[in-house]
Amino acid sequence: MNLASLRRLFAFRRWRLLVLAALLLVAGFALYLDFRVRDAFEGKRFALPARVYARALELFPGLRLDPDALARELVWLGYREGLQGDEPGRFERRGGEFEMLTRAFTFWDGAQPAQALRLAFRDGRLHALTDRRGAPVALARLDPLPIGGIYPAHNEDRLLVRLAEVPRELIEALIAIEDRKFYSHVGLDPRGIARAALATVTGRGVQGGSTLTQQLVKNFFLTPERTLRRKFTEMLMALLLETHYGKDEILETYLNEIYLGQDRNRAIHGFGLAAQFYFGKPVSRLTLSEAALLVGMVKGPAYYDPHRHPARALERRDLVLAEMQKQERIGQERYVQARAAPLGIVDKPSMGTSPHPAFLDLVRRQLKRDYREEDLRSEGLQIFTTLDPYAQRAAERALSTRLAQLDKARGGGAPMLEGAVVVVQAQSAEVQALVSGRDPHYEGFNRALDAVRPIGSLMKPAIFLTALAHPKRYTLITPLDDAPLVWKSRGTADWEPKNYDRANHGLVPLRTALAHSYNVASARLGLDLGVSEVLDSVRRLGVAREVAPYASSLLGAVELTPLEVAQMYQTIASGGFRAPPRAIREVLTADGRPLQHYGLTLEPAVDPAPAYLLTAALQGVVREGTAQGLKNYLPPGLNAAGKTGTTDELRDSWFAGFTGDKLAVVWVGYDDNRPAQLTGSSGAMTVWGELMAALPHEPLAPPVPENIETAWIEPQSGLRADRDCAGAVELPFIRGSAPEELAPCAASTGSRIKNWFRRLVE
Predict the structure, then answer these.
(1) Active-site residue numbers?
(2) Model-level pTM?
């Protein structure tokens, strides 16, 4: 064999080895892709976000509810006006009367079917609740408002649907417009591939020709890059997918995977969620025209977005319908009817991952005590929370409106005032609303949970509660010394508190010192009681944060978050029973099985009698003290209680107050801690007033402890009086602590006889 022959032989063997190596490489790559395909399809295919809901509105006769508020909530829920047969999610209103067909929903205690209801309102309450036949209904629930989710990577959101739930018209439309040979090919369309190859060769870029199977592979496994390598991988994976799985299984996965739009930072995937997002209905109830619109959007969800580009979307929908008619998938009559239909999309505000990110942040923090982050992002848990949509929106509106007004009064410019609001149910501490700033959609720093700021005079109720727990020494009328004070303590600078008005007021009754927030009288009282004893009361009220045992702590040199302040005042509002703030009620699995119930945790923290007396004193703050400006906001007879708070150099403005059923805490100030030049009454209290004016309330009438009695007192002398004495006030006392000596106005013979009979009866 000559040299040339040897060279040809070696060259042939080298090429054969290269071909063999290439084949082995392709085979290895195919095995790797086969593993990826089967691993994804045989395991859990989708990471489902935890879905978070607001509280479900419970309807029952006697419920305090404004009919306008109900109408607004129905709109928020996506209910449509006008009853049409038995279609759920519709209502009609005639003044104070409603007729509605609720949606079916699976709650913690089981599935609730759709209900036909009639409601009649009278004097701000639900007067009558009946079914369509007029039979009384004791209790009905509306499906809860979705308020967000805890999402997997890229904030993908979807509602899983089974193929059997999807209308046949949607399947026909999809196959007609995207892949008419879907049920006959093996994952690839040779003609489509030829068109794509020709486009590539002629320099028009890497183009489509993709079957539904290829589209699924591209969305499910691959990046959106447009290269030959990615296209080859896509084709190979499509063949593997068709080898292992049936057409219906592939189609069902496609229906749940395809991207169909964007809701702010939330990606809408799958026809199940798209049907809810665009039409406010389950996919099973889509009409032909609605199904055609969604299928038309597959080509370009942003380009054919019906909210932003209705004309384009309509043209694309009609093209899909025309193609269906051309392929004889629908008849001429149905085609004409569908083309004549309007787009029919619901006008829902964008939500993104949540319209209330600050509240959702609290939910996530509380969930992490019991669940892994991975499970929250992938297991499809259903989280039922305590959020009241009406209270939340009222809080957002009150804060943003008042901050804008306060900024304008200062001439505008940067920086802008910020604030936070927490609203809880007074007895149970369920968090009904939480706002962390003037932009309620901001997902950054959560001021309601993390802004640790000095609380100023909000600390004073702990001093007065401590004092009132000693009825032999202190009552609501005990004189307190408001004379100048210099407190000396070894190792620290002298402490010399001043009143806000820079005046001293001599001897003042205890309730007056709190009503007018006198710093000097409060400091003297706290020092007489002992700083450590006052701080013990603070801990019993629910403040877990360590508080330094300094005299200055008595007047609010204590830094707390708005949520911590809400815990402190909730214990007062509930009559001495402490309940930790709670944002979650129940957790269900993705298929509706109960997983965990977060019940009410209530424990006695302080004696009910001094708590009752303190509440009476805090009502005096609103009636005649630093918060009397609330009379401009609140209806008469509400008897609200509250406390203003202002810190040094007017840096922080606070207000904490409660009615019979709601407690709210408001903070206003600058993030960089510069002086806000606002007192508690000129800043935070005005936000609180606007918020509470927008909500229904129960008047504050706390239950009277057994050892509480009342007596008429003459304010000037602090002695027992008659109700007929000029200026006399009726005040509560722990039994045996009321004054026995009669005021001069009550010392007549008749008054003495009446007092004798009264004491005899007692």
Answers:
(1) 178, 457
(2) 0.85
